[in-house]
Amino acid sequence: MELRQLEYLLAVVEERSFTRAAERLHVAQPGVSSQIRRMERELGQQLLDRSGPEVRPTQAGTTFLPYARAALDAVSGGRLALDELAGLVRGSLSVGIVTSCSSVPVTDLLADFHRSYPEVEIRLVEAPSDQLAAGLRAGDLDVALIGVATKAPEGLHHRLVVDEPAVAGMAPEDSLAGRGAVSLAELCERPLLCLPRGTGLRTMLEEACESAGIPLRVTMEAGDPQRLVELAERGLGVAVLPAPSVRRHGSRIRGVEISAPGLRARIALAWSAERAMSPAGQAFIDLAGAVLAPS
Questions:
Q1: Residues in domain HTH lysR-type (predicted)?
Q2: How distant is the alpha carbon of residue 210 from its chain centre?
Q3: pTM, full prediction
Q4: Does the first or last residue of the chain, that is N or C, have fewer Cβ atoms within 10 Å of its Cβ?
Q5: 91-158+271-291, which class in CATH?
Q6: To 10 degrees, the CA torsion angle through 198, 243, 220, 98?
């Protein structure tokens, strides 16, 4: 049995198609089919059900898949260990950033990493925090900057890099603009402008409202904090934003503290707690730890 046969099998199962698996692997489709049939003959079991419109694992295939993944992970881990021993940092790095990540100098961080490790190919993905966390757990991402709420991300290691108060941002002429603070109940009486579901601050707001038994009514949402500032400035609602996003716009918008409870905008650098980290990923974590500090 060869490692490529295991790779072919996993690709077919994940893509549910020999053709799509071959395209993903950049090999000819007949080669994928013949290698898997060869492995099935060697094992004496049919691993794939080819009778339907989509290819699916048989009972034997389902039983065998965890061992195939473990074998490939073990080989990958061995290669990583040897690379680390040799002091090599190469290969690829998949980095995720939360859609509303305006408080972290991501571009500068990636540029610094590229200058230090020019042979590493960097892939950047922007998405809500819950999708990024799922990508880290699945192994699709190496590291990600995600928003975190009150609970630590399940199955992930994380290092907090931003911890800022959230404020209610509103037009200067709003009746609440002169207040020192606004309660959560008062805030939720207004049309709210928020970051999308799955972002850390939105999750924290939802959890606070649920805990207090206060209905949350979001009338508009946007992934770009700048867009929320513009909407609030024009009197379309009250925006829930990190304090720096409001402060940097000066007199255009007023920021009022949200009390009882105080909300925080937190961003963390996260990576899987279950998978071995590549040398490139570890180098990025080390660089980020040196450059970024909680604000």
A1: 1-58
A2: 24
A3: 0.62
A4: N
A5: alpha beta
A6: -30
Looking at the DSSP bridge assignments, the partners of residue 94 are: 123
Among 3.30.70.3550, 1.10.357.10, 3.40.190.10, 1.20.1530.20, name the CATH number for the domain at 162-266: 3.40.190.10
H-type alpha helices, the chain: 3-15, 18-25, 29-43, 59-86, 106-116, 129-138, 184-187, 200-212, 225-233, 243-247, 279-291
* Domain made up of 3-86: CATH architecture: Orthogonal Bundle (1.10)
Q: Which two tokens stand for residue 80?
A: 């990583």
Q: What is the pLDDT of residues 51-102, one digit of tens each?
A: 988 999 999 999 999 999 999 888 877 777 676 656 656 778 999 998 767 6
C-alpha distances out from residue 132 to 38, 96, 224, Å: 37, 6, 17
- Tell me the per-residue pLDDT of 146-193, one tens digit each, with 9 for 90 and over: 888 767 678 899 988 888 888 889 888 888 888 888 888 888 889 999
Report DSSP letters for 116-180, one per residue. H-TTEEEEEEEE-HHHHHHHHHHTS-SEEEEEE-SSPPTTEEEEEEEEEEEEEEE-TTSTTTT-S
Residue 213: exposed, middle, or buried by beta-carbon count in 10 A (0-12, 13-18, 19+)?
Answer: exposed
Whether 83 contacts 90, CB under 8 Å: yes
pLDDT at residue 135 above 80? yes
Task: Note whether 240 and 209 are within 8 A (CB).
Answer: no
- CA pair distance 274, 22, nearest whole angstrom: 28
